[in-house]
Design brief:
This protein has 458 residues and is an alpha/beta fold. The chain is built from 16 helices and 20 strands. It folds into 3 domains: 131 residues, 3-Layer(aba) Sandwich (Rossmann fold), CATH 3.40.50; 140 residues, Rossmann fold, CATH 3.40.50.261; 154 residues, Rossmann fold, CATH 3.40.50.261. Helix 10 crosses helix 16 and helix 11 packs parallel to helix 16. The chain is elongated, with a radius of gyration of 25 Å.
Length: 458
């Protein structure tokens, strides 16, 4: 794990290949570094221009007037050896290689990547990549992403850290988090993993006070035993999306990063035995990670559903049974208390169906009664935000009167509904457009709490 900290907390950064032309990868990497909240110095390296975005440019890293902690490399692979041999005299500690054209490209690319690694070990610097989007740290301001803010808004600060073999999935995670008002701490795209691998990053993030949950996307393995041990030893929840389920997927993975995939079933069983949560697809990967971030641990399995549109509750009920959770049968005492506070048309079973005539007051009264009932451990709200009787500011009222018990929201819809998610997430109430992901999130939180990976409210 030696030297990993310089990727996230450097004092000086050089962007090699920092073009003055918008749209070029080197330009966008440099722009991301200077546009964010990074407090250190950032030097553009470009022998062809005097400045980039108003910052003095230097012909080579050797011309920079001080030592460099972190290099972001965005030039062609063929130029890397000559340039990397200059790093020792500037005491470079870490290098992010954005460029492709290495192991994933050709036999010559494999040899080039191995030579880069020899130089790194000889001169004492660590490497993330090649063939990646690099590092995003919401707290230190390190941002090597070449996706501009206009296309990829950066999310608010949070406690999710993502480690991904796919730059695309890393960027998608950031985009969804930004859209839904979910906080992100760090995102690392590891690419070909010539040097720094997932195991080292998990160990580093386990000791990072800003990380609560680690999301890990895996296509293939360099050292499977080392990775599994890092997951097992990690004190924090690790949520995994494991790809390469078929021979077709394995072949694509090899083309993507130049690494062979392992047998999916074996890998899945071994990783699950290390107490990680395995997810089925990218959306579930994001949703479960989000829910763990927004939740405290809990062990109770008794669920009550409250709704103004009961259709999704049928699917939820099937899944609640599948995941061995408990859909309670409300007692007469609970029903009588609900009857005192709800309109006569409310159906007092499970779900508690407030019907399409439900108002904010109806929802809040039902939630309050359930929150005070010893029969209930978890409140699942299935909400049709589009229904007119439900006031527009219901989510604000719910956020202001957040239940004490774990509460999860399912709501399907478009932009209007997604805007409501932002308010719910700010209040640490997880919201979902997929009821299956909601129920699996509940099951996963209970599992993680039982394994000591998530602090319990009990």
């Amino acid at each position: 794990m030696e030297g990993i900290q310089y990727f996230f907390n450097p004092q000086t950064v050089a962007v090699i290949g920092a073009s003055s032309k918008p749209g070029k990868i080197g330009h966008e990497c440099f722009k991301s570094m200077v546009r964010g909240n990074f407090k250190g110095k950032v030097y553009p390296i470009n022998p062809s221009v005097p400045e980039v975005l108003g910052v003095k440019a230097y012909p080579s890293i050797g011309d920079v007037p001080e030592n460099i902690d972190l290099v972001i490399y965005a030039l062609p692979a063929k130029d890397s050896i000559e340039i990397f041999n200059q790093f020792k005299k500037k005491s470079v500690k870490a290098v992010i290689i954005i460029s492709g054209g290495f192991r994933e490209f050709s036999v010559n690319g494999v040899m080039l990547e191995e030579e880069v690694l020899k130089i790194a070990r000889r001169d004492g610097f660590r490497v993330i990549g090649p063939n990646c989007v690099g590092v995003y740290d919401n707290f230190s301001g390190v941002d090597s992403l070449f996706q501009p803010y206009e296309r990829l808004p950066r999310p608010r600060k949070g406690d999710i850290s993502v480690v991904s073999q796919s730059g695309t999935f890393a960027v998608t995670f950031i985009d969804w988090a930004s859209e839904e008002n979910v906080g992100i701490n760090k995102v690392v795209s590891v690419g070909n993993r010539a040097d720094v691998d997932e195991a080292e990053l998990i160990e580093f993030l386990d000791s990072d006070p800003n990380t609560k949950v680690i999301a890990l996307y895996i296509e293939s393995f360099t050292d499977g035993r080392k990775l599994v041990k890092s997951i097992k030893d990690c004190s924090k929840p690790v949520i995994v999306l494991l790809a390469s389920k078929s021979s077709y997927g394995a072949n694509v993975a090899r083309s993507h990063t130049g690494r062979m995939a392992s047998n999916y079933i074996i890998a899945k069983n071994v990783i699950e035995s290390a107490d990680a949560i395995i997810t089925d697809d990218l959306q579930q990967f994001y949703d479960i990670t989000k829910s763990v971030s927004l939740s405290k641990g809990f062990m109770g399995k008794n669920i009550v559903m409250v709704t103004n549109g009961a259709g999704p509750c049928v699917i939820a009920a099937d899944l609640i049974q599948e995941y061995k959770l408990n859909l309670i049968e409300p007692s007469n005492t609970l029903k009588n208390t609900l009857r005192e506070h709800l309109p006569s048309y409310a159906i007092l079973n499970n779900p508690i169906d407030l019907t399409g005539s439900a108002t904010s007051k109806d929802f809040l009264n039902a939630i309050r009664v359930c929150d005070n009932s010893e029969e209930v451990d978890i409140i699942l709200l299935s909400i049709v935000f589009q229904d007119v009787p439900l006031e527009d500011d219901f989510v604000n009222q719910l956020a202001e009167n957040k239940p004490k018990k774990p509460t999860f929201v399912f709501a399907a819809g478009g932009q209007y509904t997604r805007e409501k998610f932002k308010i719910l997430h700010r209040a640490k109430i997880p919201a979902f457009q997929n009821v299956g992901n909601l129920v699996k999130s509940i099951s996963s939180i209970i599992e993680l709490t039982g394994k000591g990976k998530l602090a319990s409210t009990c």
